[in-house]
Amino acid sequence: MRISTFRVRFILLSLSLLFPSVLLATHQVGGQLEMRAVGDIPGHYRIIVTNYLEDGTRGAQNQSSIGLIGIFRKRDNVLMQSFSVRESTARQPVIFSNEYCSEQRNLHFIVLIYEADIQLAPADYTDLQGYYMSYQTRNRNAGINNINNPSQVGFTFYLEFPALQQNGVLFQNSSPKFAPINGEYICLGDAFSFPFGGTDPDGDELRYSMVTPLDQKIANNRQSAVSAGPYPDITWLSGYDANNAIPGSPPLSVDAQTGKLSVTATKLGLYVFAVKVEEYRNGVKIGEVRRDFQLLVIDCPPLTTPDPTVQIQNRLLTSRDATICRGDSIKLQATVNADWNYQWRKNGINLANATNPTLSVRDAGVYTLVVSLKTTCSKTGNSAPITINVSGADGKLYTSGHLCATTGAVDITLTSSAGVSYQWYRNSQPMSAQTSDSIHVSEAGRYWVALTELSTGCITTTDTAYLDRSPAVQALIQSTTGSHRICPNDFLVLTGNGGIQYSWAKDGQPISGQNGSEYRISIAGVYSLTASDQYGCIGIAPAFSVEQIPPVTVTLDSIADMCGSNVPIVNLIGSPPGGAYAGEGVTGSSFNAEAAGVGNHVVTYTVKAAPECTGTVATRLAIVAPIPTIQLTDSLTTYKGNTFSLNAVYTGNPNQFHWASATYLDADNVANPTVTNIADDITYTVEVENNSGCITKDTIHITVYERIWIPDAFTPNGDGMNDVLKLPGIEAFPEAVVTIFNRWGEVVYLSKGIYAKPFDGMYNGSELPTGVYPYTLKPIPGKPSLEGRLFLIRDHH
To answer: pTM for this structure?
Structure first.
C-alpha cells in the first residue's frame, strides 16, 4: 500500500512534536512582561506576566505563584528590589482557527496571567539611564528546529523602563499593552501574517524589530533565580538568525510601525523567534519589551481553499456594516457547509466558543470568519469583514446625601452625553414629571434613568442607585467601672457608644470641646450624649445620673519607737473603724517587732469611702531601732604628757555621747574625744543614746608611765630567768628606738617602735660574749636620747 508524501510528512512531524512533550517537563511557548501605572499614587504599578505554555505539561500545572521578578539599575546592574507575582485570572486556552490541525499536531496552548501590585519610591529611581526587570524560567520545546539543544534552553522575560523621577519631576509611563494571541500555524509556501503589535497607554511611539530570543541566566544553578543582566542569547543553528528565524521567501519579518509579522515559509518545522518593542517619546527611547513566541510551518494539502460568505441576517447582501442599540443584538450568518470548521474573530482576535455558522453580536467591532476543512489540515479561508456599531447614550449616576432611619435626603445627579431625553424610575416604576438630569429624594428604593437617544431612538438605562435607610443610631452612655458614683478626689470615665462622633452635655448644658467617645468627669450631675454615625445621622442616649460619694477622714495613731525586736506586740489604732492595716510585721491590727525585724517599717491603715473607691490611706512609721554597741578597748598604756584620740567604733546609730570623767578630754559629748597631755592613770566611761532612746555604755582604763626602766645587767644563760633585756614601761612608748652597740661601736641590736622582740644577747645567730654594751634609748621622736651601759653576763653554772 502506498502512503502519500503529505501523510508521511504529517506523521513524522507529529511524532517529532509529541514525543518531546512526553519526555520533558515545562514547555515555554512565549510571553512578555507589562508594567502599568495604577494612577493613584506615584510609583504604584501593576506588573503583569503573560506566559504561554503547552497544556498538559508540568509547567502548565504550576503553583499559583512563580519565581521572583528582579528590578535592576541599567547603569551598573545593581538589584533594586525583587518581588513575586501570583496567578490572577482563570487559565484560558489559546484558540486556533483550525482546531483539526491543532488537534492533529497536539498544539494545545494555554495562557497564564500572573500579577502583582508594587509600590516603588520615585526618589529611589532617578538614574537617567533607566532600569529593567526580568523573570527567568525554563524549558523550551524539544521540537524547535532553529536553535541548538532547545530542551535545555531557558527563557528570560525582559522589560526596560525609564527613571520615575527625572530632574526632580515625576515621570509617568506605562509599558505597551498586548492583546491575546491567536493560535496559528503557517502553510508551507503561502503568504502568512500574524498581528503581534500592541498599543501604548500613553500614546508613545512603538518601534518593532526582530531580535534573538534570550536564554535563562542561571544563578547558583537554581531555576527562576533573580540574577542581573546581561542575559545570554539562545544559540541559533547554522543558517538561522534573528532576521531568518523562519526560512522563507521572504523570511519572517516584522513591520517596524505596526508589529505585524509576515512570512512565506519555505521549510517545515517549529520555529522560535522574538520581537523587540521599543517605546519612544518625543523621539527619545524610554523603554523596551521583549516578546517571545513560536510558530509551526506545516505542509497544507493543495485543496480548494474554502471561501465563506458572511452577511447580516435580514439585511441586504451588500450591507457590510450595521448599527444596533446598546443592549440589543444582531446575528451574523455564514455559508453553511457540513465539511467546514468555523472560527469567528473580533478585531482580528479569535473568539472563544464562536465556532458555529452564526454569531450573535452585541458589541461594536470588526467581525471576520475563518473557515477550514473539518477532516483536513488545509489552508484557511477568510470572509470579508463586517463592521458593527453600537449606539446608545451612556449615563452614570452620582449620589450625595444620606437617608437616616427617619430623616435625610439624597440628591441623585446624572452625567450623560448630549442629545438624549430622561425618564427617572423608582423600583421599576416611572416617576411622574421627573425628566431632568437630577432629582432630590427622601424615600428608599432603586433609582435609575432610561436614556433615549434622540437621533436613533435607542433606549439605554443607567446604573442603579440603591438607596436604603441606615439603622437608627443607638446612642448609649456607660461608665468604665459600671458605677454611677464618683469617689472622693477621683474621677469617673464615661464612654459613649453607637456612633463615631459625639457631643456631651451636663444638666442640659452643652460642654464645649468634648466630642470624643470618652469623657472624664469629676462633678456629679445628669449627663447626656448625642451620637452621630458615619452618615451624620444622630441618636440621643438616655440620661446618665452621677452622684458624689462623700470623702472620709482616716487617721492612724502614732507608734512609739522600739529598742530592738524583743519587745511586746503593739496594738494599732486607726479611725474610722472597718479599715485594713498593712505593712511588714502587721497581722490583723497588731505590729510584731520580732516579725518585722530591725528597721523603719511603713504601716498603713486604709478605709474605702465606698466599695468601688480607692481607699484613703493613713501612714505611720514603726521604728524598730537597733540597740547601740560600743567597740572600745578595755585598757591601754601610754606615757605621761601624751595626746591621743579615743577611737571607739559604734553601731545602732547613736547620736548622743557622754564621757565621764572629763579630765584631760577636749570634749565630753563627742564620739571620739581627744585625750590631751595626760598625767595620771584614769578610767573613762562613755554612755551613748540613739534617736529612739536606746542606751548603752562602756569603760576604758588608761595606765600612764612617766619613763622607761632600764636594768644595769641581764643574764641570757637559758635558765629561764632574766634571759632577755626587759624594759618595764616601754609599752607606753610605742615609737621608742633602742640601739645597743659592742665595744667597737657596731650596732648589735636595734628596735624601732613596739619592743616586740627584746634583746636576747644574740647577734646574727651567735651569742655575744660577756661584757659591757653601750646603748641609746629614744622614748619619743624629737626628744633627747638616754644613754647608758649594760652588762651582759653569761653564767653557765
So the answer is: 0.52
